Amino acid sequence: MSIKIGIPRALLYYEFYPLWITFFELLGAEVVISSRTNKQIVESGVQHTVDEACIPVKLFHGHVVDLRDKVDYIFVPRLRSICKGEYICPKFCGLPEMVRHSIKDLPTLIDITIDCIKSNRDLKNAVFAAGNFLTEDRDLITTAFQTAYIAYKEHKMILKKQLFPPFKRKKIMVLGHPYTLYDSYLNMDLLQKLEACDTSILTPEMLPKPVISHYAQNFDGQLYWSFAKKLIGTVLYLKDTKSVDGVIYISTFGCGVDSVVAHLVEKIIRRDTTLPFMLITLDEHTGEAGINTRIEAFIDMLKWRDSDENHISSHG
Amino acid sequence: MHKMKKCYLGIDVGSVSTNIVAMDEEDMVLESLYLRTQGNPIQVLKQGFIILKERLADTVEVVGVGVTGSGRQLAATLLGADIVKNEITAHGIAALHFVPDVQTIIEIGGQDSKLILLRNQIIYDFAMNTVCAAGTGSFLDRQAERIGIPIEEFGALALQSTTPVRIAGRCAVFAESDMIHKQQLGHHREDIIGGLCEALARNFLSNLGKGKELKSPILFQGGVAANVGIKQAFEKLLGCDIIIPPHAAVMGAVGACLLAKEAVRKTNCTHFTGFDAAVSDYTVKSFECSHCPNICEVVEFHRDSALVARWGDKCGRFSSTKIKTSPTEDELAQ
């Protein structure tokens, strides 16, 4: 019987899942992904996490609980840095400790450290450390990682193809971390709701990384957070290309990175563009009235502006 | 028989108040009702329509209905609406109607506060309060009750303040403990209330107005606009006059009326179920669906004993199924 490895469907799962799943499967494991976020996961997450954590970290705990009795190992990487010279949110560094001390009766955690702050070479050790939970064969691990990396890149390519989706009336850039954008329970189906209003969606995930890096260089200051670089690079790209009709930033209550980045993004948009901008802050509340009102009003605003412009052009 | 006057109804079902406005073809307000929702929107809507029926049913013909507010879906189901709009658009439309060159709207209601910016007569930008309800009507209500003065006198008392005390306005809990502390120190009631009004206005501007240009003319509407203390605090902070439009407390409903007029102009018919909607008996039942781990709270809405609508489920299992006139045994068992 093969070894079961559980991956919580939370946080950077949304960025790296093709890589992680392919890697463990090629090493002979059966990969079990936790259920999609649901009320039970939210409740157990809130119950099992230190109070001051943000909702995405709480959800991560809920997903770990969901996997607890189903698998032999749970993959909880300690992510310090995923790109040379850049850090990510500090909560990701302490994730294995937070999980271990908050949730009882856990299976063994695969808590390898991924730290590329100095160079990508350190990544190799992390890959072997993860692989060693399943095999001692270094060649097998290397091949598995290479194949998994290709799978990850291919997945990225598919996302980029959505850059020019079928024509719709309005294009909206939805900014935020992948785990808030793509967890439709957390964001109350925001993307689907927007699409239902005859708009097409663009996310930072759909922009090629070199494009984002290129524009991020124009930023006056050092961007040492990977998430910040991605979002600010995207906004500077929008500023130059004027490729959307409006920008919505989804943040979660208590997010440290967003407390700086959301403000910078808003500042750039308001100072250098005329694009409508809206910040939506998510937390544990389940009432959808607030978010629906904001979306409807935002779409009304876009369309109203549009009809106003048409009005002017047709009359003179 | 005299000719029936055509009229439009606008209904704004908010968290604290439910407002109903009737307007004629010339946009004159015929009736306006401001009722406390008191956590029971259905009962309040019924009550409102009993009053309206008495005052209007013999003289007017309702040709269009618009609904807005956080309870808009409920109101639409109950009364049959021609347009269901969010509060921001409704408030913007209403403000433009009274002051066509309005550039800024401050709207403070029961649980929401909104800042709406307009340029060239279109909504240009808006912001709504996020997780905290500090500075909204329900917080003021609570404080008035705690100090033991009617909310209607709250604003007038604030005007009597000579040296308003400094109160933390960032959070309702902190503001309250600050107020209690100042009371224990022996400050005058007027100064504490005056200080609270300033704290709320300051909180509104730093929270919603951050990075935004608030240009004159500025309108102040929503239930809290009746509070002269808050109005004065805004004027002091912004250094310009603030206009309180007519019908400020029911502006959302006025906007809904105007939107209804626009909507039926295209369709020429109304979905209004009639004033008798009020006479029907409404019951709401709710249950927890156990079909998946989301355990949604599904609400079932019945008119007289017939099921008319269901909502609250994430998957659409209940809300999207066509309602039959009488539910089957099977459905009731779920």
| Helix/strand structural class of chain A | alpha/beta
**Helical residue percent of chain B?**
25-40%
Structural class of chain B: alpha/beta
Q: How many DSSP E strands of chain A? A: 10
Low-confidence stretches of chain A: 311-316
Radius of gyration of chain A: 21 Å
How many angstroms does the end-to-end distance of chain A come to? 76 Å
CATH uppermost class of the largest domain in chain A: Alpha Beta
Number of helices of chain B: 10
Mean pLDDT of chain A: 88
Helices of chain A, by number, come to 13
Order of helices and strands of chain A: EHEHHEEHHEEHHEHHEHHEHEH
Which CATH architecture of the largest domain in chain A? Answer: 3-Layer(aba) Sandwich
Structure, explained:
The complex is a heterodimer of chains A (316) and B (334). With 316 residues, chain A is of the alpha/beta class. Chain A folds into 2 domains: 4-160, 3-Layer(aba) Sandwich (Rossmann fold), CATH 3.40.50; 162-315, 3-Layer(aba) Sandwich (Rossmann fold), CATH 3.40.50. In chain A, 52% of the residues lie in helices and 14% in strands. Chain A contains 13 helices and 10 strands. Chain A has helices spanning 13-26, 39-48, 55-67, 90-93, 95-102, 121-131, 138-161, 178-181, 190-196, 209-216, 226-241, 256-272, 289-315, and strands spanning 4-7, 30-33, 73-75, 78-81, 108-110, 113-115, 170-175, 199-202, 246-252, 277-282. In chain A, the strands form 3 sheets. In chain A, strands 2-1-3-5 form a 4-stranded parallel β-sheet, sandwiched between helices. In chain A, strand 9, helix 12 and strand 10 form a beta-alpha-beta unit. Chain A is globular, with a radius of gyration of 21 Å. Chain B has 334 residues and is of the alpha/beta class. Chain B folds into 3 domains: 5-90 and 252-277, Nucleotidyltransferase, domain 5 (2-Layer Sandwich); 100-244, Nucleotidyltransferase, domain 5; 282-333, no CATH class. Helix content of chain B is 36%, strand content 24%. Chain B is built from 10 helices and 13 strands. In chain B, strands 3-2-1-4-5 form a 5-stranded mixed β-sheet. In chain B, helix 3 (87-98) packs across helix 9, helix 5 crosses helix 7 and helix 5 (151-159) crosses helix 8. Chain B is globular and about 60 Å long. Chain A binds chain B through residues 35, 38-41, 185, 253, 266-267, 270, 276-278, 281, 283, 285, 289-290, 292-294, 296-297, 300-301, 304-305, 308, and chain B through 70, 85-89, 112, 120-126, 128, 130-131, 211-212, 292-296, 314.
